[in-house]
Amino acid sequence: MVFNIALSAFVLALPLLLVDAASTKRSMCSDGRSAAANSACCAVFPVVEDIVDNLFTNECGDSAHGALRLLFHDAIGISPTAGGGGADGSIATFNATELTFPANLGIDDILDDLGPFLLKHSNVLSAGDFIQLAGAVSLVQCPGAPRIPFFMGRPAPVAASPPNLVPQPTDDITTILDRFGSVGFSPAEVVAVVGGSHSVAGADDVVPNFEGVPFDQTPAQFDTQIFVDVLLRGTAFTDGQGAQSGESETAVAGTVRLQSDGLLARDPRTACTWQSFVNQQSKMAQAFGEAVLKLSFLGQNQHELTDCSEVIPQAIALKTGAATFPPGKTVKDIELSCNDAKFPNLRTQPGPATTVSPIPQAVSTSTAAPAS
Length: 372
Prior knowledge:
The chain is mainly α.
């Protein structure tokens, strides 16, 4: 936590979705390789290159997953009654406070990885901008994920987020929907942002010894498999930790299911939206991207920000993204919760059941300068 201590002293309705600057006149940046519609964006291209090569190492791995989680935990820290700055970077600048919040357990890992890069590039981006940039860039490391717009110009945060604003996996469905609803998110948008982010995610310190255990069979690609796996009938942890932490075992060996995901997949207010994303890759990516962009503007005035979307690398197409049933499983193993639509016809994977491998934990290759 050496970095986190240092960072505490460092106070620093757009139509979506696919970023397309082809119709905008752009000028060549001084590096002779990049072009931008706004010259202020030129300074961001080296930042992107640095974090792609040295933070994410060109992989949809642990650091990329963590950066996306950090984007959400920072942005949701705002309430019309309790206050907070939203997507302002307070989770980094005031980490000594916000990392004590139970919902932020495990966030210190990604802050330790990402923090030196934030400090290195603090002359270009505020903490809020950097977290949003890292989240957007993390997505395009994952095949199938959307390329979302990026805006810069957020001022430095002035205070820590109030506590209890980040939804937890142990929350009931009404609490989760009300929390999102208070900042303008519909139940359908909640399903999109939560389900989409968990398609490339895994357990992170929520249950001891379960770090890196994925939430679905394909944590290295952004696809709709999560919407199938969460609906499969599972079993509870025998040691009781699952009930306490909000996680339970699933029918897919080597994965865990968040209690909150299970509720979203089965509650009448959200079940049909959850099911509607199965094998609907484009629909899911579009809805997720729109929700993440909406998160990025919480607490911010979009009209005071600069559109630097061209700095985000191209998205990676998903080659084999069809959702499937695990070996030996069929629609009979699905806990059907949507009465308005038939569950899609899916192929069952051949062969004996296998165990999904844990997500390899990040090994930093940072070339970032240490904080002074």
